[in-house]
Design goal:
- By secondary structure, the chain is α+β, with helices and mostly antiparallel strands.
- The chain has a single domain, classed as Nuclear Transport Factor 2, Chain: A, CATH 3.10.450.
- Helix content is about 40%, strand content about 40%.
- It contains four helices and six strands, in the order H-H-E-E-H-E-E-E-E-H.
Amino acid sequence: MKSFRQAVEANDHAAIEALLAEDVVFTSPVAFKPYPGKAITAAILRGVSRVLTDFRYVREIIGEDGRDHALVFEARVGERAITGCDFLHLNEQGLIDDFMVMVRPLSAAQALSEAMGAQFDRIAAEASGTAPADGA
């Protein structure tokens, strides 16, 4: 979805959040349980932007009905190159209601898990409204 891709590439967290449905479910590549809700999903995406560098989308695949999108990305997490895919589903209003991420290779997924783990307290505080959501 073009508006989401542009928002991510511009690091525009307000625009990203505006594209999320209130009932969005985020499925992490490194956590067992999905995260339901707009606040936590937006906070996770801000955290990801803090730990991934050189992020760029390299391919987009769109389903026949236009409601399913796969955005393939490349980035770095620390010293590791990472390749992944954001799988997005849009609801009837055109908002993202399902957001699943997969990444490879395993060594990069482990580095991502460690980096995001270090962000978790801040992510939780942002999601609960007890920390500023400045994207920095």
